[in-house]
Structure formats: structure tokens, C-alpha cells
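This section describes the prediction task in plain terms. A model, or a person checking by hand, is given the sequence of a single protein chain and must write out its three-dimensional structure as a string of C-alpha cells. No templates, partner chains or ligands are provided. The sample shown here is typical of the held-out split.
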Amino acid sequence: MKPCKLLFTTIVVLFCICLGNSKTASAQQTNSRLVQFSGIVMAADSLTPVMYANIWDKNLRRGTVSNAQGFFSFVAYKGDTVLFSAVGYQKAKLVIPPNLDDSFYTVIQFLKTDTVLLPTAIIYPWPTPQEFKQAFLSLNIPDDDITRAHKNLDRERIQQLSLAMKMDGSENFDYQMRQYSQNLYSMGQTPHMRIFDVFAWAEFFKALKRGDFKNKYKGYDKDN
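The expected answer:
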């Protein structure tokens, strides 16, 4: 019985040693495939960091997110496929070299700007169709071009506007220069009185016949 027990014990010990060696070799092989994958995600057109970009390991089905400076770092395997994505940028793909000698791999990944064309949105001021119908029925349709032209060219309306309209800069300047020239004309002597000016009386009677003073006072009463 003793030789059988000794043989059985020897077989069990050898099996455990072989199993341990295989696990150690497998662990060493697995550790040799691990790589510290890190880098920076940047925009291709402006070279600015892309913050909070998604970095996804397609083989391990896990990943990370870049920080505010665009930096990221996580453990992956050699030969894994990594996907990069961010809002407003086109997706990118990178494969970690399978024959990498080092246990770390650093990259600078550039993302191109993605232009998204949104459909046209028309905003209406009416929240419901019933309110739109009511507003449409009570709509005051403006006159046509000919009717507006007749209103704008109405003689009485133009005269009222001209009486209420103030002088612009050029007219004020011309009036000031006339007053200045008139003062220079009588400088050093007694200013002449327009009451004895025959031409001024003639202009006064013409204006009286035209009714300029009546229209002027009529517009003044309306303003008051």
C-alpha cells in the first residue's frame, strides 16, 4: 500500500506544479499584452483640446472620457481597436499596434469638425390653430400700392407734413448764414426796418392771397 500512496502523491504534486506553471505562463503572457494607453484629443482645425470626448475600447467594451484639457488614460491590450467620438466632431478609429515593445502607448488624436444641417424650423406667434384662425379673420389687410401712392401724394397731407416738419442741418445752417450776412450788412449803423421795404410788402400780399398764414395757423391749432 505504501508504494501506491507514494505514487499517487507524486502524481498529484507533479500535476499541481504543471498547473501552476501554466497559470504563471498564461499570466505572464497576459501581462505582456497589457499596455497603458494615454494621449490627448484635439480639434484638427484649431488645435484646441476636445474636452469630455468619449474613448471606447471596442474589444474590451469599456473606455473613458477626456478631461477639460483633452487628456485621457486607461489600460488596454495590444491590438485593440479604440473609437473616439465627441459632440460636433466626426468619429475616429485607432488600432493599438499589436507588436508594441513597450508597455505604454501615447497618441495625439485629432478630430475633424462635423457640420450638422438641421431642418428649417418656422416659429409662429400663435400657440394653437384656433388662435391663428381668429387672428387671420381679424387681420387688417393693407391697401395696394396704387392706393398707398395716392395717399402719400395727397396735397393736403403733404402740406400738413411740410408745416410740421422741422428744418434739417443744412437748412439751419443756411438760415444762420443769412442772419449773419444781414447783421454784417448793417454793422456800424442802425439796422434798417423791413416795414419800409417795398419788396417785403409785395411778398406779404402774395402770401396773404395764397392763404399761407391761414394754413399755418390751422396747423398750429391742430398741434395744440
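For orientation: Residues 22-30 have pLDDT under 50 and may be disordered.
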